[in-house]
Structure prediction request, 246 residues.
Amino acid sequence: MTAPSIPRARCLVLAALALGVSAASVRAVADEPPLPPPRPPELGASEKAPAEPSPPAPIGGAAPACLAKLTADGASAEAATAPPASAEGCGIDAPVRLSSIMADGGAVSLPDHPLVTCEFAAVLADYVRLIVAPLGQSTLHAKVAAIETGPGYDCRTQDRIAGAKISAHAKGLAVDFVAITLADKRRILVERQTGADEASYFRAIRTAACGWFTTVLGPGADAFHANNMHLDIEQHGSSGSYRICQ
Prediction:
């Protein structure tokens, strides 16, 4: 079901990164004597060639402030470089390789080491720290040890359909939860759960995800998400407030 907004507010306000430059101050010239117009170049004299514009900065390592906060909060992450884009529209800004998230007194491993934007990594880390891990402990009486997420960045269209819109994965803004492993070795599949407690736990973290991510698609949404829960923070609509929660 789609919804234009989510009634619950996020539990945490994430640090927003903004790159900008301040306007330069302009000196007053009212008291300066006027200067004559520049002398025209001599005939035959060659004009100085204009400086070539600097090439655009390559999409590369994570923004230092974001990565510093991410690691200070207990995540194991490192700046990374995205592979060359194989299709138009692919590209990842400030990529990081995320290995684990500190939550509930221990490290939650991400064995797939997803490659995502630092911004997305920060949202995912808070969701795991404040929702996935505590609910696992309270509902299933065991610490969350690992989460299988898939690779994160993947230069492709949505659901790999030819001609479809470029996927949030192609921008490093998404992961797909496949399974959650507990410290007692239980492995909870997104596709199906064993027992009422596991089913209740998955329903709870799936519902809560709609307050953290702009898109949540899981089993029952469509055939492409029958065995995974897709989470992304891609903006929908001009206002950015529209969310897809299925």
